[in-house]
Amino acid sequence: MKKLEIKSKNIEKGKEGEESFKEWLESCKLSYLYVNQNKETFASMFGRGEDQAVKRPDFLVLFEGTGLIAVDVKNYSDFDHNNKKGYLIDNNRETKLVLCFERLFRIPVWYVYLDNKNDSQTWLWISALKVIEAGEPIKKKGIEDKSFISESCFSKVSKGDDLGKLWTERFSAYRAIKDAEY
Prior knowledge:
The strands form two sheets. A six-stranded mixed beta sheet has the order 1-2-3-6-7-10, sandwiched between helices. The chain starts with a helix and ends with a helix. The chain contains five helices and ten strands. With 182 residues, the chain is α+β, with helices and mostly antiparallel strands.
């Protein structure tokens, strides 16, 4: 298959994932902003191609009383690596650009993967910061710029009530401080 055909199929699969996530947010009655990914709609600070300095998220989701989180939706098939199931991510360039967004806007960024193995709509959430810690670089031809993240590193969320899990993942360092003896 030609590179252009593969890219086109990946874009279509990504749009399907975003649409499924939007429907899931609606079913959970969560407030959100769906970010138009048309390049002409963004300020020059986001850049284009190699000049890109910040990656825009797919969604901004409002947790009333807590604030916003940014979400980048992924719709990839799971991947086997060293007898473990997980997912791939462009750990080098993309994650750095996502973390630039987080730092500049002071909004936590989460990757959300559609769990294609489940009949119900289950989403696998991982903070962009955890991707840096948990990602294992892949050294296979054709996927050199990717990192593997074990499925065990994700928080599984099926309904809105499950979203509380994200706070314990994101702020696990606070538990260590709280539990420390002084």
